[in-house]
Amino acid sequence: MPRPLHATIHLDSMQHNLARARACAPQAKIWAVVKANAYGHGLERGLRGFAQADGLALIETENALRLRELGWLKPVLLLEGIFDASDIPLLAEHDIDSTVHCLEQVKLLEYTQLYRPIDVHLKMNTGMNRLGFRPEEFAAAYRRLRAIPGIRNITLMTHFANADELEHPRLSIAEQVQRFRLGADGLPGERSLSNSGGVLHTAELVQELQSDWVRPGIMLYGGTPGGRSAKDY
Ligand SMILES: *Cc1c(COP(=O)(O)O)cnc(C)c1O
């Protein structure tokens, strides 16, 4: 039986939170993360609440297509990239950016004829240990992607572990930034570093967290990572 629970969602609060992210990282373009059905708020509300974002980022290909159906014309990014070769023609057809985090994805792109150029985001594992190339494998992966004719821009990306805690005793953001710098050293392309935790720390780590793109998620929905209250930032 359904329980009598109601959620009231204020689109203007979502807009406000996006503006807050922009104020934290004024030099960066923003991917508003709308994965998991816009963190449970509904994809359509995400689209409307974050209309001012520079792009929308999520996981599922079908929801990326849904954003296009709903009329979203700005960039769309698949945060985990393609899961199958059949996704590749959709990227080209609907102009969807794809993350590349493993060799299997590189091979799928090598084997598939792209009839229209696509942009990809090459992901480095700097400590999250979930997805991404190790720093020492990164340049080789970059070169393989660069050799694929249909690939246009390659953005260099990482997703921090412990981003909510600036000085995590086991692995700090500064250490992960250092790994990223070494692995990406000399490679051209825009940089995409921070999730909400990183965005909220940008004031403290301005030099380290200089990046062309940021990818806030939970903070756009009123969540405050790290156990602090929104007032504290
Ligand atoms: C979920 C996710 C984000 C957003 O993370 P938050 O902690 O919710 O801000 C950013 N980048 C990637 C790759 C993600 O998977």
Explained architecture:
The chain has helices at residues 11-24, 35-39, 43-49, 61-69, 88-94, 103-111, 135-146, 173-183, 196-200; strands at residues 29-33, 55-58, 76-78, 97-100, 118-124, 151-158, 191-192, 213-214. By secondary structure, the chain is an alpha/beta fold. The protein has an 8-stranded parallel beta sheet. The radius of gyration is 18 Å and the shape is globular. Pyridoxal-5'-phosphate binds at residues 33, 35, 79, 159, 195-197, 215-219, 225. The site of pyridoxal-5'-phosphate has 13 residues, from helix 9.
Using brief descriptors, characterize the structure shown.
binds pyridoxal-5'-phosphate, alpha/beta, 9 helices, 233 residues, 8-stranded parallel β-sheet, globular
Describe the secondary-structure layout.
Layout: H1 11-24, E1 29-33, H2 35-39, H3 43-49, E2 55-58, H4 61-69, E3 76-78, H5 88-94, E4 97-100, H6 103-111, E5 118-124, H7 135-146, E6 151-158, H8 173-183, E7 191-192, H9 196-200, E8 213-214
Parallel strand pairs: 1-2, 1-8, 2-3, 3-4, 4-5, 5-6, 6-7
The chain binds pyridoxal-5'-phosphate.
Structural class: alpha/beta
What order do the strands of the largest sheet run in, or round the barrel if closed? 7-6-5-4-3-2-1-8
- Termini distance? 40 Å
Q: How large is the share of residues in beta strands? A: 15-25%
Helix content: 25-40%
Structure annotation, total helices: 9
Order of helices and strands: HEHHEHEHEHEHEHEHE
Shape: globular
Report the uncertain regions: none
State the total count of DSSP E strands: 8
Average pLDDT, rounded to a whole number, is 92
Sheet with the most strands, sense and barrel status: 8 strands, parallel
Bound molecules: pyridoxal-5'-phosphate
What is the oligomer described by this structure?
A: single chain
Which radius of gyration do the C-alpha atoms yield? 18 Å
